[in-house]
Amino acid sequence: MTRTLGELAIFLGGELQGPADLPIEGIAAIEQAMPREITFITQKRFARLVDRSQAGAFIVSPEYARLPRPLIVVPHPYLAYARLAALFAPAVRRWPGISHLACVEPGVELGQEVSIAPLVFVGAGARLGDRVAIMPGCVIGQGVSIGADTLIYPNVTIRERCTVGRGCIIHSGAVIGADGFGFVPGDAGHLKIPQLGTVVIEDDVEIGANCAIDRGALGATRVGRGVKMDNLVHLAHNVEVGEHALLVAQVGIAGSAKLGKGVALGGQVGVAGHIELGDGVQVGAQSGVNHSIPAGQTVSGSPARPHREWLQIMGHFPKLPDLYQRLKRLEQTVSELSARLKQEQESSK
User: Which residue from 100, 247, 255, 321 has the highest number of Cβ atoms inside 10 Å of its Cβ?
Assistant: First the structure.
């Protein structure tokens, strides 16, 4: 696909500085871009590479609007890059219609232009909206509902009665609606608690590879609109994730925890069950959250504490061996002084 620089400036709503008819065929990193590609500058260290770059044009912020190269000037270059990357991205291959190698049970409701690839199973009573695309090896359980324009990559399992909204992307290996981890100790061992609830995934959610979202014990595990989940995230039964939250790789959230809107959890964060994180809470990577956190706070560490306090603690941490040795010497000095004082007191009697 070829677009002119002028067309791209209009698409991005940016200020064009350069020839409007300059042909652009793609987007690339500043070190790799070729004369018919556009690149972007988000940090000063990239601006230093402009003279050596072969890129045909640059997306920049007003700070770099005087660079002597063809430019599109926008307030947020990284956001503009994301939009252009989507524009130039190759279309995902869809199976044309319903493969004769797929198993679609009776009573399935299919919207227009649905794509079902070979070796897909769709259970009775499932409802697939317009332009839903399901790639090979997926299992869609009975009574599942999937909204329009949702893309499901290979080997995804969506268990019975779960709901997926419109415009979602679910990557390979994800399992939605597995049983929550519920057992009661008894005389004969651990008695399984049947998990009678469902999972509700709202619109515009992206779920990474090998994520696991358990169904509710009663009621629903719920993922709000616009949530983005990295790979290997686990949501236990009855977790609620607010709109536009970000969950980075290997996050684990225990049962019935509630996350507000816009919460951001770094990689390998663990959240205890039955607590609440308010709107906009940010949690640093590898933190352990074992208590509720009010809206707007940033925390780190395990157990999680205010981020600045954690930074102070981490700043002192490397000094601990030296402080320990100094404390030992101080204790020895105090002990010697105490013994000498006691000896002097006894000799003066």
Answer: 247
- Judge whether 207 and 186 are in contact, CB under 8 Å: no
Question: Over its length of 349 residues, how does the chain's per-residue pLDDT go in tens digits?
Answer: 899 999 999 999 999 999 999 999 999 999 999 999 999 998 888 888 998 999 999 999 999 999 999 999 999 999 999 999 999 998 888 999 999 999 999 999 999 999 999 999 999 999 999 999 999 999 999 999 999 999 999 999 999 999 999 999 999 999 999 999 999 998 889 999 999 999 999 999 999 999 999 999 999 999 999 999 999 999 999 999 999 999 999 999 999 999 999 999 999 999 999 999 999 999 999 999 999 999 999 999 999 999 999 899 888 889 999 999 999 999 999 998 998 888 878 787 6
Residue 198 contacts residue 220 (beta carbons within 8 Å)? yes
Cα torsion angle, 7, 8, 9, 14, sign: positive
From 171, 237, 274, 307, the catalytic residue? 237
CATH T-level topology, domain 103-309: UDP N-Acetylglucosamine Acyltransferase; domain 1 (2.160.10)
Query: For the domain bounded by 3-88, which CATH number is listed?
Result: 3.40.1390.10
pTM of the model: 0.89
Residue 237 falls in the annotated catalytic set: yes
